[in-house]
Amino acid sequence: MADAKKLFIKTYGCQMNVYDSERMAEAMGGQGYVVTDRAEDADMVLLNTCHIREKASEKLYSDLGRLRPLKRKNPDMKIGVAGCVAQAEGAEIIRRMPMVDLVVGPQSYHRLPDMVQGKGPAVDTDFPPEDKFDHLPQRKALRGPTAFLTVQEGCDKFCAFCVVPYTRGAEVSRAPQRLLTEARDLVERGVREITLLGQNVNAYHGDDWTLARLMRELARIDGLERIRYTTSHPNDMDDALIALHGEEPKVMPYLHLPVQSGSDRILKAMNRKHTADAYVRLIERIRAARPDILLSSDFIVAFPGETEADHRATVDLIREVGYGAAFTFKYSARPGTPAAEKPELPGEVGDARLQEVRDLIIDQQRATQEAMVGREVGVLYEKPGRWAGQMVGKSDHLHAVHVTDPAAKVGDLVRVRITESTANSLAGVRV
Ligand code: 5AD
Ligand code: SF4
After folding, report:
1. How far apart are CA 243 and CA 211, in angstroms?
2. 363 contacts 328 by C-beta, under 8 angstroms
3. Comparing C-alpha atoms, which of 293, 223, 212, 308 is closest to residue 256?
4. pLDDT band at 132 (very low <50, low <70, confident <90, very high)
5. How many CB atoms lie within 10 A of CB 391?
6. Is the CB of 300 under 6 A from ligand 2?
7. Right CATH number for 5-132 from 3.30.230.10, 3.40.190.10, 3.40.50.12160, 2.60.40.10?
8. Which one-letter DSSP state was computed for residue 334?
9. Mutation probe of ligand 2 site: the residue of 157, 237, 271 with most atoms within 8 A of C-beta
10. Is the pLDDT assigned to residue 110 strictly greater than 60?
11. Does the pTM exceed 0.85?
């Protein structure tokens, strides 16, 4: 066997990129590359980028700047840019940074091994007719007992602020039988929890199956104990999916359901196609199906035209719903999106609103965590903890939990009574 070459991958952005990075690593494995966690030793560096906010793409260019001395020292080192910035900027990246050898978009990365060998173009941002998943090697379980499974990609919603419909393209769902096969295969390799991924995962419609139907079938796989899914759009939460939360114990009581704003005026300007009230009613129905479900959301503050009253409506909605977690963002204009045409609010206004929303979310997150103390939850051990005999896993509600459990091993799914809540995690004892 030829000497193993080393591949360093840096992943920015969402879980879909984490999944794509794993699949690219597997594809490059066929070329004799093994993954390293040190860019200094690498024969190839791959930056899997995110374009969702301005800061994310700036980070790419500053990271490339930092790679320059490495490339100077080792001119044979290949540098590739993948992901959504690659899709959006294409050849412009090489023009701006000639040290970059390859640019590959999220729909064409199965062609990466050929590109590295000089058998393809240096820039590939096609939406190719072939399905990349047909051309990628079989999955390995790389992350222990949990795995991601991309079931749907792209988005047709065109929220006014968002680049995803342009970078990831139109909604495409993978065929359900393929997904069931991939899931069974992951379970055979020791996976016990699968998170279904999609930019609009609950719009899944592979072979006319709904996401609820796909999850029902997945739940029949022996050895698969937990199913999660992200990210969902409120308008695609159908009755069957809501009901499934109450009926199928393998579906975990955690739902990321972004609302972005609590103001109807802003929701309309964002092209979200639902009101704040419709969202709150939807949450009520979901909670009726699964009372202990923990909710999270994304919020954008300082969207163009957002008044103080609009902002108060967002704060009120957060108070009304009560979240277990949430991501909060200051609006950032993305070239090519409709919102980018509109005048922006002063930076300080956005900073103050962001701070207020963040503080509120942190309070709710802490309160939700503290409310777990005394309760018994399932915990799937993902890795050993820092102390001898300690394990770290995730609860059903996606809280990190530390447990002293010397006889246990990674992959065990155990019952734990929560005894303590600290800043970012819980502690408990096995029951
Ligand atoms: N500015 C700020 N936040 C954004 N998001 C998407 N586009 C933008 C933007 N232009 C946020 C949304 C989305 C999350 C993934 O990123 O809240 O749900
Ligand atoms: Fe972007 Fe909206 Fe689609 Fe989510 S639903 S990916 S925010 S356009």
Report:
1. 12
2. no
3. 293
4. confident
5. 25
6. no
7. 3.40.50.12160
8. -
9. 157
10. yes
11. yes
Q: Residue 163 CA: which ligand 2 atom is closest?
A: 1
Identify whether the C-beta of residue 260 lies closer than 8 Å to the C-beta of residue 147.
Answer: no
> Residue ranges of the domains in the chain?
5-132, 133-370, 376-430
Please tell me the distance between residue 326's alpha carbon and the centre of ligand 1 in angstroms. Answer: 12
pLDDT given at position 332: 94
Q: Rounded distance, CA 281 to CA 283, Å? A: 5
Ligand 2 centre distance from Cα of residue 409 (Å) = 39
| CATH placement of domain 376-430 | 2.40.50.140
- pLDDT at position 121 over 90: no
Q: Is the pLDDT of residue 1 over 80?
A: no
Give phi and psi for 259, each to the nearest 5. -115, -25
Task: Please determine, for residue 142, whether its predicted confidence score (pLDDT) is greater than 70.
Answer: no
Q: For ligand 2, say whether the CB of 155 is within 6 Å of any of its atoms.
A: yes
Per residue in 322-359, pLDDT (tens digit) is 999 999 999 999 999 999 999 999 999 999 999 999 99
Q: 414: part of which helix (H) or strand (E)?
A: strand 413-421
Q: With a 6 A CB cut-off, is 157 part of the ligand 2 pocket? A: yes
For residue 155, report the distance from its CA to the centre of ligand 2, in Å.
6
The residue written with tokens 């007992």 in the block is 145
